[in-house]
Design brief:
alpha/beta, six-stranded mixed beta sheet, 39 helices, disordered N terminus, ATP-binding, mismatched DNA binding, DNA damage, P-loop_NTPase, DNA-binding
Length: 1226
């Protein structure tokens, strides 16, 4: 406010002049207009200052007035009720809703109606209605009326509005029922979440409701295979499941949707034909109420089963068949089937909760794991069988964003890694590219920001809608925001808070800014049709997926300057030393897999063997002197990547401790563990452990007794006498043994046909199986103890895996790129000097071009298909790779500046779903460039303006060039608008951009492109050759050549009324090229033009109209009219037979430039066109400046003799103007 008052005082001091006084330093204006001018300026200054003051007062009082409105909202709503409620109930209403009335603030509900309703449903009466002297129905009506009044006032004052500013619909009846419910009010717990209500007497209080059917009657009457919409379902069904059922399109799943009903959580009670849940489904309802947006997979014996809407999801996304044609589906219990089903569901953006039976008591089931798109790998597969689970998948990252005025804080949360990696000052355009990487992100996105920042987020078309606003106070620090996001995620995934998530801040000092989505796609970092992927050509084809992910992430979000130089040093070691042989690092486990399985205490022998090999290889590198040149750059990059300080001696000590722990627990793989045995637990745990040794001894004793029992029972001729059944896991005889025997039984107690056993054999077999089970348990306990011991070395394991992946990536890139002839350019200076080639081409096949780009920039022209876009991508890819520390497709001696950002702009087409045209998309991307361009920016602009008319495109490109030059931006603009090179740009004394062209030579009269960069300008795009190359027929090509001929296109391609009707609307006349006229060629007087128009006809009935005058009725439509628009210093001559519509178009186009118009009615359209041509010719000969003079070239609408004379006069006039211009230039 003080600043505004200061400006107001300054305005008064500068502009207010009291009568009879004058400022000593102010010169007196000649004449008596000085006082008038000063008074006008003073009045204007006062009005502007008052307007600024009013706006400032509104901003200052907005927060206070909004909070004050919310405070008195409850009382005003109560006063508006007629009749007034009883005093005791009035007080109870005010107290009951008073705690949550602040929920109407947009800062609380963030435009989300469901969030507002959820908070208001917490309000409770808190007293007995009998004590208040009211009946239940009367209390319900009063409460509903009060809630409706409260909601109406809030909406009227702009509080109960959504993100788009529209008023929210009230839910007065539902809120009244909740307020009068006897359920205890669910107050939030310490971390802000609502507690889960217990499952009481077979029902959850207000957690599930009885519904007849999930579908409406109208939806049930449709055809069985018709798709459903969200509005087809009962309002009691959660919106989340309405959206999921809207996606269902498989016929089997569509038929199951009609069976949903009975309850609003599963939709399964209808299938059970029972209105009260019992047994297992009673427990399932409790689980579903705790996790309403997950698919429940419950182990029932040998199967995992799902019911209701969960079964529909399995049938839809996993291809399973329903059980007994009801909403029930399942699959056998094994790790492979479970992981396959989870993968199908998580790929469909669904979450899964797995409940397994307890090993001690089969009727007790526990939640084993919650799997989501961000954590899709099941970590407890060893409990379900020995089947392989397949490749470990880390899943998509969870995203946390904090919206700030100085840029965005962008963080990736990886639950399997227990890690948060974040960058500061990220642009929204860069966030769009980061979100597009790795096939999207996991929902929800955690968002927090300053006041009303959600309004800005809603404007971003790319911003995901599945977000969770944290609503933290603005003064909290970023680390607390990230900590709260991790707590929310752990609650969603049912994970323990220990060990805590590691926060890794990526240093961006001197780093290249993260790429925008458009740049990353055009340079091949992300997928785009027709653009080769940069990472695929920078690494060998056999490179592991982890190295590709690492390099792509480096290119999308480049690292700090120190890290880049460390990478350059690392690569320099690899490409310069021919004797440096790395130890084997080909089985490096993902860091997410290592941390996840160790944290869950479910690590396998194979995982620990991989960790052991990785640690041994890295220990060799850090211990032997021949690898000394790798130590400093390697440790520097790993420290920046893991967020921890690394010293070689400490790192080596940690590696030795990890190796000692693994060697103590695992069996030595160099020696066989009982080679005569095929028991699965052999060869895993070391026998040096007492528990393992005792278990193995028990197995050996039980095996000896089993062999003795078999010997005693075998007949004399015992060839092929034993049978092993893998399903029952038993041994029996085919013939009756010599001792007492009886029939053998299967696992279900049923006697087997022609199979026999003895009591001693049964006892020995049972003892052996029990001993084997104890040995398996001992081995598993040994692995769990190893997980516990390694959990104290998680930091070392992170560094080990990061170092191994980094070495693999750098070595693979150096070996592959050096084979292609790529080099490390120098990073300095402000001038790009390099001989480059396209990154996707073999060096022997590529055409190398020397690029010498200074701060003045360059304009590249060339024919179609000559390689302009290829050159632009080669420059951009080389600059990006060099500034990330990688080798580039350049020849030795190249120099690349150290840029701050690299931007690539090209035509990407329209976005109809967002209402953005092709040129609108170009305008959006270029506007982002202009906002952030500056010194250190490399802007590559390819065919800008291709989505609009050539004249506007030329103006846009010229303006873009001038603005980039003014901001000291280094740029290359490739265009087919060749005459841009001739424009004298306003560059404030800076040098004009260099003119580049793509090489071309003619062989036998036909063009041959050399694809080499040259200095100069191309004047012909050779469009005809391109059309012929891509298959245009000869007839169309001939017509193209005829229309392209000089002075032919305009005379033959005319805009005519196709119907010939005088009442048909005419298109708006298009502006033509402006003629170059001298300064004397201006409109001298209206009388001169009127006389010339009148001379065209015998009678002089020319009408003069003001810009906003209404046309005479006879001239509005159906009458041919010759007209002249009087513009500011120019004339526009035209004709029309629908003058009213034409004048409306001209008013919209010219606006304030239109000063008047002259009208001359004529007999017909042909006569009007003839007179239009003659009038334009005469005006040009007399030196008038015309807005458009193309019709003056027409010969079909003028007398032959007069036309020839006028042509000769115009030709002589042009010759004279050219001679004058040449003389002026000299």
């Amino acid at each position: 406010m003080s600043g505004l008052l200061g400006r107001l005082h300054l305005a008064r001091a500068n502009h207010v002049v009291r009568p009879g006084s004058r400022d000593r330093d102010t010169p007196r204006r000649p004449g008596g207009m000085a006082g008038v001018h000063q008074a006008a300026v003073a009045a204007l200054g006062l009005r502007m200052a008052a307007r600024h003051m009013a706006k400032a007062q509104v901003r200052l009082l907005r927060n206070y007035s909004e909070s004050k409105q919310i405070e008195i909202l409850s009382a005003e709503a109560m006063d508006a009720l007629r009749p007034a409620p009883p005093g005791a109930f009035r007080k109870a209403l005010l107290e009951g809703f008073g705690r949550e009335v602040q929920s109407f603030s947009p800062e609380v509900h963030q435009g989300d109606r469901r969030r507002l309703l959820q908070r208001l449903r917490r309000c409770r009466l808190g007293e007995d209605l009998a004590s208040l002297g009211l009946e239940a129905e009367e209390a319900r009506k009063i409460t509903q009326a009060y809630v409706q009044s409260l909601w109406t006032l809030a909406a009227r004052r702009g509080l109960a509005v959504d993100a788009k500013g529209s008023k929210m619909r009230s839910a007065a009846a539902d809120l009244a029922r909740a307020f009068l419910s006897e359920e205890a009010c669910p107050h939030p717990v310490a971390d802000g979440r609502l507690p889960v209500q217990p499952f009481v007497d077979g029902e959850t209080v207000e957690r599930w409701r009885l519904v007849g059917s999930w579908l409406s009657e109208r939806a049930m009457e449709r055809e069985p295979d018709m798709l459903f919409k969200a509005e087809d379902f009962h309002e009691a069904v959660a919106p989340f499941w309405r959206e999921q059922l809207e996606r269902v399109n498989r016929p089997e799943a569509l038929r199951l949707v009609r069976h949903l009903g009975g309850d609003n959580l599963f939709g399964w009670l209808k299938s059970m034909a029972s209105s009260k849940p019992t047994g297992l489904f009673q427990q399932a309802l409790a689980w579903k109420s705790q996790q309403p947006h997950t698919v429940l997979l419950v182990q029932v014996g040998d199967f995992f089963e799902a019911w209701g809407v969960d079964a529909v999801m399995l049938v839809q996304w996993c291809g399973l068949n329903p059980m007994a044609r009801r909403a029930r589906a399942g699959f056998p219990v094994n790790a492979a089937s479970l992981q396959q089903t989870v993968d199908c569901l998580t790929r469909a953006d669904l979450s899964v909760a797995v409940y397994v039976q307890s090993a001690e008591k089969k009727t007790v089931r526990v939640l084993r794991q919650v799997l989501t798109p961000g954590a899709p790998s099941y970590l407890h597969g060893h409990e379900l069988g020995k089947e392989t689970i397949g490749e470990f998948s880390e899943g998509r990252p969870y995203i946390a964003m904090r919206l700030r005025t100085d840029g965005l804080l962008f963080a990736e949360i990886r639950p399997f890694r227990r890690e948060v990696r974040f960058r500061e000052d990220v642009t929204p355009e860069a966030v769009e590219a980061l979100l597009a990487d790795q096939d999207g992100v996991a929902w929800p996105i955690f968002v927090d920001g300053s006041k009303r920042s959600f309004l800005q987020a809603n404007k971003w078309k790319w911003f995901p809608k599945q977000r969770r606003w944290m609503n933290l106070p603005p003064e909290v620090q970023d680390d607390y925001f990230l900590q709260r996001c991790c707590q929310e995620l752990c609650h969603t995934l049912q994970l323990s808070q220990d060990p805590p998530f590691v926060q890794v801040r990526l240093n961006t000092a001197g780093a290249l800014q993260p790429l925008t989505l458009s740049t990353s796609k055009n340079l091949g970092v992300l997928q785009r049709d027709g653009v080769p992927l940069l990472v695929d050509h920078a690494l060998p084809e056999a490179a592991p997926a982890s190295t590709r992910r690492l390099m792509r992430r480096w290119l999308l979000a480049p690292r700090s300057q120190d890290t880049v130089y460390a990478m350059r040093e690392l690569l320099q070691v690899f490409i310069s030393s021919q004797a440096l042989v790395l130890p084997p690092l080909h089985r490096v486990p993902p860091v997410a897999k290592v941390i996840a399985f160790i944290t869950a205490r479910t690590g396998s022998e194979r995982l620990f063997r991989d960790i052991q090999d990785c640690c041994q290889g890295l220990q060799m590198i850090l211990a032997k002197e021949r690898y000394g040149s790798l130590w400093d750059p390697l440790l520097k990059i790993v420290a920046a990547d893991t967020g921890s300080e690394l010293h070689r001696d400490d790192f080596l000590r940690d590696l030795r401790q990890v190796l000692d722990l693994i060697q103590d627990r695992l069996h030595d793989s160099a020696s066989a563990d009982d080679p005569l045995s095929n028991e699965a637990f052999r060869g895993i745990a070391s026998r040096a452990q007492e528990s393992v040794a005792a278990a193995y001894k028990g197995v050996q004793d039980a095996r000896d007794h089993l062999c003795q029992a078999l010997k005693e029972g075998l007949p004399a001729k015992h060839s092929d006498a034993l049978v092993y059944n893998p399903f029952d896991n038993d041994l029996c005889f085919k013939q009756k043994p010599r001792n007492d025997s009886h029939a053998a039984h299967d696992r279900k107690g049923k006697a087997k046909k022609d199979r026999f056993t003895t009591k001693k054999l049964e006892a020995a077999l049972s003892a052996y199986l029990s001993a084997a089970k104890r040995a398996e348990l001992a081995v598993q306990q040994s692995l769990e103890q190893l997980c516990d011991e390694l959990s104290g070395h998680v930091s070392a394991l992170r560094g080990t895996v990061a170092a191994a992946e980094l070495l693999m990536t750098a070595h693979a890139h150096a070996s592959h790129a050096s084979r292609l002839g790529w080099c490390l350019p120098e990073l300095n200076g402000t001038k790009l000097q390099a001989t480059i080639a396209p990154y996707w081409m073999d060096p022997g096949d590529a055409v190398w071009s020397h690029v010498d780009l200074d701060l003045c920039g360059a304009i590249a022209t060339g024919p179609n298909m000559s390689g302009k876009s290829t050159l632009m991508r080669a420059i951009g890819a080389s600059a990006l790779l060099a500034n990330c520390g990688f080798l580039c497709p350049v020849k030795p001696g190249a120099t690349v500046p150290q840029y701050q950002q690299v931007v690539f702009i090209s035509a990407e087409g329209d976005r109809p779903s967002e209402g953005v045209s092709a040129f609108g998309r170009e305008a959006m991307i270029s506007a982002s460039l202009l906002r952030r361009a500056g010194q250190g920016t490399l802007a590559l602009v390819d065919e800008f303006g291709s989505g609009t008319e050539p004249r506007a495109a030329k103006a846009a490109v010229c303006a873009l060039l001038e603005e980039l030059s003014a901001q000291s931006t280094q740029f290359v603009v490739a265009t087919h608008l060749h005459d841009i090179v001739d424009v004298d740009l306003r560059l404030d004394g800076k040098a004009q951009p260099i003119a580049w062209r793509m090489g071309m030579k003619k062989t036998g009269g036909f063009p041959v492109w050399t694809y080499a960069l040259e200095l100069g300008v191309c004047r012909d795009s050779l469009a005809a050759h391109t059309l012929e190359h891509f298959g245009w027929p000869a007839r169309a090509l001939g017509r193209f050549q005829a229309l392209l001929a000089p002075n032919a296109a305009q005379s033959e391609v005319e805009t005519k009324d196709p119907s010939g009707s005088p009442n048909a609307p005419e298109p708006e006349p298009e502006p033509a090229k402006e003629p170059e006229l001298s300064e004397a060629s201006s409109v001298d007087s209206v009388e001169a033009v009127t006389e010339m128009m009148a001379a065209l006809k015998d009678e002089s009935d020319v009408l003069l109209l003001q810009p906003q005058d209404m046309l005479p009725a006879p001239l509005c439509a159906g009458k041919a009219v010759l007209y002249a628009l009087l513009l500011s210093g120019r004339l526009y001559i035209g004709q029309s037979d629908n003058m009213q519509q034409r004048l409306r178009q001209h008013r919209q186009r010219f606006g304030e430039r239109l000063e008047g118009l002259l009208l001359l009615p004529v007999a017909n359209t042909g006569e009007a066109r003839r007179l239009e041509t003659r009038l334009q010719r005469q005006l040009l000969l007399r030196g008038f400046a015309l807005e458009s003079s193309q019709d003056a070239l027409h010969r079909n609408f003028s007398d032959e003799a007069a036309a020839e004379a006028e042509d000769e006069a115009m030709r002589l006039r042009r010759i004279a103007e050219e001679l004058l211009e040449m003389a002026h230039r000299r």
